[in-house]
Every structure is written in structure tokens, then in C-alpha cells.
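Need fresh eyes. Consider my entry:
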Amino acid sequence: MNIRMESRAAAHIETEALVTFVFEKDGRVENLVAELDQATGGQIKALCDSGELTGKYAEMTLLHQAPGMTARRLLLVGAGKPEKWGGRELRRATGAALRHLKSRKVRNLAVLAREMNRDAASAQAITEGLLLADFESDTYKTDKKDDQQVETAALAGFDGGSFAKAERGVATGRITSDAQNFTRALVNEPSNKLTPRVLADRAAAMAREAGLGVDILDEKRIAELKMGALLSVAQGSAEPPRMIVISYTPGKEKAGAPVLGLVGKAVTFDTGGISIKPADGMEKMKYDMAGGATMLGVMKALAQLQPAIRVICVVPATENMPGGRAQKPGDVQIAMSGKSIEVINTDAEGRLILADGLAYARKLGCTHLVDAATLTGAIVVALANVNMGVFGSHQEFTDRLLASARVAGEKMWPMPLDDEYREMIKSNIADIQNVGSGKGGGAVTAAMFLKEFTEELPWIHLDIAGVTWFDEAKPFAAKGPTGIGVRTLIDFVMKYPS
């Protein structure tokens, strides 16, 4: 989709559909809405008076051939209560508008920003809303609806003082949304099309095209580095594992500057191994590599945005299969760090491969760590599909990420890491076991397991299991992968340290 800036007044914009936002109190038709009401010959006021146009969030009211307007249609999108309106709501309302018009075969549109949304951040949010909503998960369908494609979109309402800033916002929004859609495309792939080796190849191709450093460790190098935790998960599959390393180095790196490690779980298909999962819903386990895909998407964006710090992305990739060589409950594995692990449940495999991923990130010189993983069903029990679980070892470091989440409009909730949870992963035969003893706290004990491999470095764990997939289509997004977490991490890296 081509996105451009539009400088003409609202009444004179030539487009198939002009989109703007109406708040619940806009029945008074003040400001921009009053201008549009005049251009439409009082139609907006009449709709407000009749109760048909309420401004309720995501309500769609479409006017055709309004007198006094060049646009063929005027779409009034409900913005809800003004006090609840922010970047997240703007992004989603814009996306809902695009999908509403896209289904009506509109090929070009313009978004008219409201008075409070004429800045760079709003231009970025509108751009992201458009491009993220345009993503479809119908990769392998043969009857694609090619007549439902928006080709161009324009941003309007920005004056001379805000025009240049808005252009920068559009440019940034394109980079961030392209990165998020790259992640979504990877997560959407079926596991027979995206094996660990294919994922590594696609990551390497992205890195080389973007000008990033790349190193792919095959099974021989993984064994030489004694990554026993990763190898233990991979041994049940005919597909060999890979350790993907993508690196970004700034042009001027300060001596002693922090090195950020982004570690992502990439189980390209998870059967649960010998502790096999129920058949119902197992097809979704192709998205158990979403954490790795998230970090790869972030790196794609960073190559263009050029942060001031060095970033190393480490993605352990494998399948978890119940083959004849698969590890069994009760086995003891030795991780790269030398720590021994008793495997109680082979379906708790993500923390095993992350153990070696975190250890390798430290070996490569990372001083600060963030990992992302579809790690536990327990986080879904705790937070449903609304918030991502956030576990942090250092409060200031974690607070920075939570602040970036608010900017990105991605909901996250801090979770505990009390010392008492460490007792739950003690093993009688090894240093630790891979699931907690007793009932409850599964997401926390999983995080405590990962903490064992961070060596007390500032570290954040993101459990994205509940938010990585839309089971049903949303007004602003297609059914399927969400790519949530990408924008937060981009903002976090770009502002760190500051």
C-alpha cells in the first residue's frame, strides 16, 4: 500500500473514501466535525440528532456523495469517549476503517486526523493502523479476493507546522508495521513449510538484505558448544535444530556501552514430545516460534532505524516431536551453562531451548537480556488474551519496557519473581527441574527457571502465549497471528539508554 501526505482541505480531497473520527460528545458538531457537517449540508448533525450516529467506539457510518465534498464517500468512525482516546485507540480505529472499506472494494482512501492527532506520533499510529489492518493470513488460498486491495492511502489534516513531523511519523510507522507484518507472516507459516532450517534461511536472507550480521549454528556447532538443553528437545525430531544469531552494531559504539540481547523461542512445531498434547487445537502449535519471529521482526526494523546501542538477537529453533529418540520424563540434561536439568515434562521444552539461548547471548557479550516466548498456558489462565506477562529482574530496566508498551499501545502486565518460587523448581537429582512442583504459578516458575541462566544480568521475560494469535477476526485485524511485542521492543531499543 502506498501511503502519502495530503495537503488539500477536507472538502477538496479527491478520494474514494475520506475517513475521520467522531467522539461520543460530537453531537454538538464542533471543530472539524462542524466543518464536515457544513460540507455535507447538515447530514452529520441530522444523524446525531436522530441517534443513528452516536460516536460509540468503532461504530461505522458511511455517507455517499455528500454535497460540498469531492470525496465519493465519507466514513465517520466512532472514537468513543474523548478521555479514553489515545494512540492505541487511534491505531485500531484506523485499522477498523480500512477493513470496513476494503470489504467494500475501496482502492484508495484518505484519513483526516482530528485536532488532537496532528503530530508525528499520531501519523505513525495511523500508518501502523492502515498497514497492520491490511495484513491477511490467506497465504495458501487459491481464491484470494484480489478485488479487495487498498492501493493508496493519504493522511490529511496536517498543516504547515506539523506536515514535516507527520511525514517522519509515516516513515517510522511504515518501518515498524512492516516489521510486525514480517513477524506475522513467519508465525502464519505451517510447520511443514517452515522447519528450523527454513526459518534460519529466511532469517539469514532478511539480515543480509538489511545489512545486519548473521551467523547460523548448525547441529554440529550446537553440539560443540555443549548446548545440551536445546539438543535434548531436538533429538526427537528428524529435523535438525538451528541457533540463529543476527547482530546490529551502531556506527559509533561507545566503550562500555550496554549490549542488548534479544532471545526468542522458536519451536516451529510443538507436539509436547513424549508428554504429548491433546489433539484438539494442536494445529496452532505452529505458532510456538512466535517469540523468535518477534525478535527477528525487531531486528529488521532496527537495521533501518539505527539505534545507538549494539543488539544481538539469538533464536534457538527446533521441533519438539515424540520420535524414538525423544527425551523422556525423568531424563537429566546438561545445559550450555553447565547446569543440570531434570526433565519432568517434555512439553515444558521452550524454557530448555531458551536456557541455551540466554547462555549463548551472555557468551556473545550481552549485558542486558530480553526474551520472548509462547511459554506457558498458565499465563493465559492468569491474563487471558488481553495482557502479555512481563517478568523482570531489575525494576528500572523493566519500567523502561513497560513505558514503551504504553507508547506502542500493547498491553502488558508485570508479574512476580519472589524467591519463594525458586524453591518450586528444585530437583532431588539435578540442579533444577523444568516444571514447578505443587499446583499453580506455572508462568512464574517457568520464568524462575529462565532466570537461572541470566547470571543476574538485567533481564526481562515476556510470556506472549495469550496474545500471539487472534482466534477470530477483529474489526482492525484478520484472524491469525498478531505480531504483538514487536513495536514495544522497537521503541524500547530506540530509547535505550537515554
In short: Residues 383 and 468 are 13 Å apart (CA to CA). The first strand starts at residue 2 and ends at 5. The radius of gyration is 24 Å.
